[in-house]
Design goal:
This protein has 190 residues and is α/β, with parallel strands linked by helices. It is 59% helix and 12% strand. It binds BIS(adenosine)-5'-tetraphosphate.
Length: 190
């Protein structure tokens, strides 16, 4: 089994690149953002709770997100591996993921971290907001999401650096160029 974390700030292209990676490497896509948006659109109790945080640019509480991941792993026992997109976003989530995967004897193999300047992130998210209508893609909320990233999510990179699993990838350029860099790293370790 090959388990990969695609890491980066909001708008760094995690969702965009995951779509290409799952196609090429046949991994199961686990996107906490997609799972949460699906719960929100179906107005489930979890979705109604999550929406309060997402609309303000804040992270959804750890216990909610960790529970979702645990169910997703249990639903897919026989797979090539997982690509975790947008998870873990806090050190507590990273520790919980390690515990879940250690229990299954299939640890994280690599963490690919997309590096994108703040100016570029804001411009991408504002144009995504204009086309998708996502409630968390307006200027005020984007500023809060980036602040939340620096406070709670960027320490996750240090967590994986300490475990010698972090590889930094330039996240600016065309989607194809970035995909080529990501693919080279994955292929060399698979
Ligand atoms: P997510 O859905 O995970 O997404 P994201 O961070 O907004 O964006 P992503 O990096 O996937 O960017 P994309 O490819 O779309 O999170 C949404 C919210 O859910 C969070 O704020 C939080 O509230 C909640 N949440 C999710 N996971 C959570 C967790 N684990 N714990 C707690 N809360 C959680 O790219 C962005 C745009 O850029 C797109 O329009 C794309 O077309 C464009 N783009 C991509 N690559 C490009 C390139 N190379 N050049 C130019 N444009 C590019």
């Amino acid at each position: 089994m090959f388990n990969l974390v695609l890491f980066g700030p909001p708008g760094s292209g995690k969702g965009t690149q995951s779509a290409n990676i799952i196609d090429k490497f046949k991994l199961v896509h686990v996107s906490t953002g997609d799972i949460l948006r699906n719960e929100v659109s179906h107005e489930t109790p979890l979705g109604l709770e999550a929406k309060k945080y997402m609309d303000q640019g804040m992270l959804v509480p750890d216990e909610v997100v960790i529970g979702m991941i645990s169910s997703k792993l249990d639903e897919n026992p026989e797979v090539n591996g997982f690509i975790f997109d947008g998870f873990p976003r806090t050190v507590a989530q990273a520790e919980a993921l390690d515990n879940l995967l250690d229990f299954k004897n299939n640890p994280i193999n690599i963490v690919l971290s997309l590096l994108v300047t703040e100016e570029e992130l804001k411009s991408r998210l504002i144009s995504r907001g204009a086309s998708s209508g996502r409630s968390d893609d307006n200027e005020d909320v984007i500023t809060k999401r980036i602040k939340e990233y620096h406070a709670k999510t960027s320490p996750v990179a240090d967590y994986y650096k300490g475990k010698e699993k972090l590889v930094e990838i330039k996240g600016e350029g065309t989607v194809d160029e970035i995909f080529a860099s990501l693919s080279a790293e994955i292929s060399s370790r698979m």
